[in-house]
Amino acid sequence: MAVSADLKAVQPEAAAFESQSDGVFDMMKDLKDKMAEEKSTLETEEMNAQHAFEMMAQSLNNQIRKDIEQRTDKASTKKQKSRIPQWRKVICQTPQR
Known about the structure:
Blueprint: H1 2-10, H2 14-82, H3 86-93
């Protein structure tokens, strides 16, 4: 019986071990919640940044399209003005009496 008394004295108490592990589990749960919240925040920021980028790209594309149309219109108008009929050029160059 002396041996079993010695074994009981050497074994740690189960309740003390369980109370320490509860703290680790709580800490891990808190970290999980914190990481989930941080992930959600970062995903929201990323979506907002992506949306802002797409809006800026659309605005720039619209501006480019508008500028090309204006340039084409100007070139067309200039080309039409340069096509003055030959008889008008002759009349304008004839010296006045």
